[in-house]
Amino acid sequence: MKRRDVLKSLGSSVVAASSLAVGGQAFAAKPEFKWKMVTTWPKNFPVLGTNANYLAKTIEEMTAGRIRIKVFGANELVPAFEAFDAVSRGTAQMGHGAAYYWKGKNETTQFFSAIPFGMTAQEVNGWLYYGGGLALWEELYDQFNLVPMATGNTGVQMAGWFRKEINSVEDLNGLKMRIPGLGGEVLSRAGGTPVNMPGGEIFTSLQSGAIDATEWIGPYNDLAFGLYKAAKNYYYPGWHEPGSTLETFINKEAFNDLPKDLQAIVKHACKDANMDMVSEFSAKNNAALTTLVNKHQVNVKPLPDDVLKKLHTLSNEVVQEIVDRDVFSQKVYASYTEFQQQATKWSKVSEYAYMRARAL
Ligand code: CA
Known about the structure:
The chain is α/β, with parallel strands linked by helices. Helices cover 49% and strands 14% of the residues. Helix 7 (181-189) links the parallel strand 6 and strand 7 (193-195).
């Protein structure tokens, strides 16, 4: 049967559908690309894990089903911290995580998730999209056969939950705290003992006194974990994670196999998921902070200025040592700090000045 005869015999709905055809391909075609997305989060983990689901759904909708993505929680296809390798070798086509998990591959990866006393979500997105940050990230991941995309940001985190008050630098001495990454290294130089443990063990360790303190994320996730039942002092601000960027990493061949229109959709869907996560955290943290204070009588307190100053000095030392060890780190950090210096001047007369004015 000729095409026009088929259309005639099937009636007007098919004609209408065919009129939506783009480049000779009808919409709602069979999936052309079936992808697997491995994640570093437990399946459906609030905000972080659900952002991965949201991204998969958005891409499927925007491509009218031409790309189908099956999302795997940690350990479903591969363990959380093997996601990077799995996508690199093509076991899965994409992954969702945070760049600091891959510091064992290359220490510079950490600079693309968070730097203690570094930039906020808004500032870091400025650097990534308009300050050369993303291009450097692409250059770094290229050697692992991956294409990175910024996909979400936690915003400023909280400094964490402490069984005892922190009134001076001396109170950090001997403090056993669950705090991973660069922040942990900083705490160790302040005389504390950083501990790393899976999320599921944090609550009982804090409650039993096996650890004196823990950081996690912010009010929404911390409330869900029930951390307020184990410690009452909730300190701010999250100096160690002022705006942690989450990421998608895509197998390079898989990405290059996509036609240009689908590549553009994937890229823009990640950008949309990036914005969506900041918005979701903003809404849910607002509400959860109120619940923690009003319903659970949590003491929300600022870390003392001299403690923050000390942590800041130590953070600069820790980061500088990484930079001194590695040429590419130097390049990334130079770009990051140059942008941060400018951003700080601008933030001082915009966000910071306005926040202050609003609170007068
Ligand atoms: Ca954290």
